[in-house]
Amino acid sequence: MAGALLKKGIDQLKSKEFRDYLMSTHFWGPVANWGIPIAAIADTKKPAEIISGKMTIALCFYSAIFMRFAIKVQPRNLLLFSCHLTNETAQIIQGCRLINYEYLGGKEAKKKEEEEASAAAAAVSA
User: Fold this and answer.
1) pLDDT at 121
2) Residue 106 in contact with residue 100, Cβ under 8 Å?
3) CA 21: distance to chain centroid?
4) pLDDT band, very low/low/confident/very high, at 9 (cuts 50, 70, 90)
5) In Å, how far are 23, 47, 91 from 118, measured between CA atoms?
6) Where on the phi/psi map is residue 100: left (φ > 0), alpha (ψ -120 to 50), or beta?
7) What are φ and ψ of residue 15, in 5° steps?
8) CA dihedral in degrees (45, 48, 50, 56; nearest 10)?
9) Cβ neighbours of residue 95 under 8 Å, at least 6 residues apart?
């Protein structure tokens, strides 16, 4: 049974329809577009003070629009949809980090932490 299933999968990969899909913009467009959500996910490890609120909002709107486009286009482009869903999620996380840093006390907490670290370093060197 597993052998038959594997053979059917390999036959599907060898089909003209699959080769046509691999050579279409329905495949390569989203693959190239994955750079945006990958960068956004990598940025979640960086300090919150470097987040651009305007860019985060722009990318949220961009991904929301293209998620809708990916569903409405015929045939549906689920690869593009998943790319923009991932980016939307990463941008919302970045937006929450920015709000926490700018408006919910994150900036003050970081400043206090830096002052304590500098006071501790001064005490050790004295």
Assistant:
1) 76
2) yes
3) 24
4) confident
5) 57, 19, 33
6) alpha
7) -70, 155
8) 90
9) 53, 56, 57, 60
